[in-house]
Design brief:
With 431 residues, this protein is an alpha/beta fold. The chain folds into 4 domains: 125 residues, 2-Layer Sandwich (N Utilization Substance Protein A, Chain:P, domain 4); 65 residues, Beta Barrel (OB fold (Dihydrolipoamide Acetyltransferase, E2P)), CATH 2.40.50; 76 residues, GMP Synthetase, Chain A, domain 3, CATH 3.30.300.20; 79 residues, no CATH class. It is built from 15 helices and 15 strands. The strands form 4 sheets. It has a 5-stranded mixed β-barrel with strand order 5-6-7-9-8. Strand 5 and strand 6 form a beta hairpin. Helix 2 packs antiparallel against helix 4 and helix 9 packs antiparallel against helix 11. The protein starts with a helix and ends with a helix.
């Protein structure tokens, strides 16, 4: 090895982006494998490459012991102290054993080790690069399609666009340039695997960041996004600067900014609404383009009950419930939509139910108070009515009192000396 060799390593570092130190460590490991291939696999050796000159040396390493069991990896304390008196048991004795040349097989082994280490270093660098870009947008070129999977060339690595991450109705042709969202980066035995998506809501956010400078510099915040890929999307934007209209900034002059995003998403419709910290106002904005009359928020159930004009009901719900569904995803609230006539009918029914419930409670209270009158013995109908508001009555006691009165012809109770009126109408007092 010489200075030319170090120059080659520097060129390789620039081309592959792999550190020169990693390459030198790979070559040292390769030389160790080559030496063991030629001069015995059980020997313990160390290879050192001079970083300035490129010269390499091989050192045999032997453990110092009292009694030698294997001379290939051990040396006696007596022999070691002949070289250096300071050696002790369990120290390591190193001696240079640099060969003049390696055999053909050993050289081939070294080459394989170097190539393998370089490949592993490349994979590690690619994994680190793309794992840090998870949640970012990338541009790639379609390479091939296999079993509905689309493989996209990202330069250093080939990304996978699975069928579940492809937009409905979108076709991919060889050499097409597309933008995609990095969902996940996996480390596999064949190198890093990059999974990308064309349906993720994050792709919508990143595209607006590219097209709208106000979002990129932080003047406008993209608070939330909901998406049904290939059909329709909604985004909520907000600006702390009162002089900046967040919706207008995203739309752009003559709609140029939003149109660029729509073109990239193959004609997907995009609703841009203004975010509001008040949930009621935010829900009303999210149902755009429908106009909202009232919004009632129920915090405990996380439900928003919305009333819209009769002619706006179908617009608020959308085709197959799409508008309401996207608004619910955007706001995080369950949305119950009713027209004004439906809300009025429901209110009338609720009021009628409350009136009936109140009347039922009043009747129930009257019957209870009337029954309470029979808790004590009574003499006549007037006494029963007098107690009707105070005491509780057991029906069995009333019947016994009535029977006693009915059996008395003279107007005197057999079980009591107290007279009772003969004309007392007990039927009126019974419940």
């Amino acid at each position: 090895m010489n200075v030319e060799f170090l120059g080659a390593l520097q060129d390789l570092e620039r081309e592959k982006g792999i550190s020169k130190e990693i390459l030198l460590e790979a070559i040292e490991a390769a030389l160790i494998s080559a030496y063991k291939k030629n001069f015995g696999s059980l020997q313990n050796v160390r290879v050192h490459i001079d970083r300035a000159t490129g010269e390499f040396k091989v050192y045999s390493r032997k453990a110092i012991v009292e009694q030698v069991a294997d001379p290939r990896i051990e040396v006696s304390l007596t022999e070691a102290q002949k070289i250096n008196p300071n050696y002790q048991v369990d120290d390591v004795l190193e001696s240079e054993v640099t060969p003049r040349e390696f055999g053909r097989i050993a050289a081939q082994t070294a080459k394989q080790v170097v190539v393998q280490r370089i490949r592993e270093a490349e994979r590690g660098m690619i994994y680190e690069e793309f794992s840090n870009r998870e949640g970012d947008i990338v541009t790639g070129i379609v390479q091939r399609m296999e079993n509905k999977n689309v493989y996209v060339d990202l330069g250093k690595v080939e990304a996978l666009l699975a069928p579940s991450e492809q937009m409905n109705g979108e076709t991919y042709r060889y050499s097409d340039r597309i933008k995609a969202y990095i969902v996940e980066v996996k480390k596999t035995t064949k190198g890093p695997q990059v999974l990308i998506s064309r349906t993720h809501p994050g792709l919508l956010k990143r595209l607006f960041e590219l097209e709208v400078p106000e979002i990129h510099d932080g003047t406008v915040e993209l608070k939330a996004a909901s998406r049904e890929a290939g059909a329709r999307s909604k985004i909520a934007v907000y600006s702390k600067d009162e002089n900046v209209d967040p919706v207008g900034a995203c739309v752009g002059p003559k709609g140029m900014r939003v149109q660029a995003v729509v073109n990239e998403l193959k004609g997907e419709k995009i609703d841009i609404v203004k975010w509001n910290p008040d949930p009621a106002k935010f829900v009303a904005n999210a149902l755009s383009p429908a106009k909202v009359v009232t919004v009632d928020i129920y915090e405990d159930d996380k439900v928003a009950r919305v009333v819209v004009p009769d002619y706006q009901l179908s617009l608020a719900i959308g085709k197959e419930g799409q508008n309401a569904r996207l608004a619910a995803k955007l706001t995080g609230w369950k949305i119950d939509i009713k027209s004004e006539s439906q809300a009025k009918t429901a209110q009338i029914a609720a009021d009628s139910y409350e009136e009936y419930d109140e009347e039922y409670e009043q009747d129930y209270d009257y019957e209870d108070s009337y029954d309470e009158a029979y808790d004590d013995e009574f003499v006549d109908e007037n006494d029963a009515e007098a107690y009707a508001d105070d005491e509780y009555y057991d029906e069995t006691d009333a019947e016994d009192a009535y029977d006693d009165y009915d059996d008395s012809d003279s107007g005197t109770d057999e079980s009591s000396d107290s007279p009772k009126p003969a004309d007392a109408d007990m039927n009126k007092s019974r419940p």
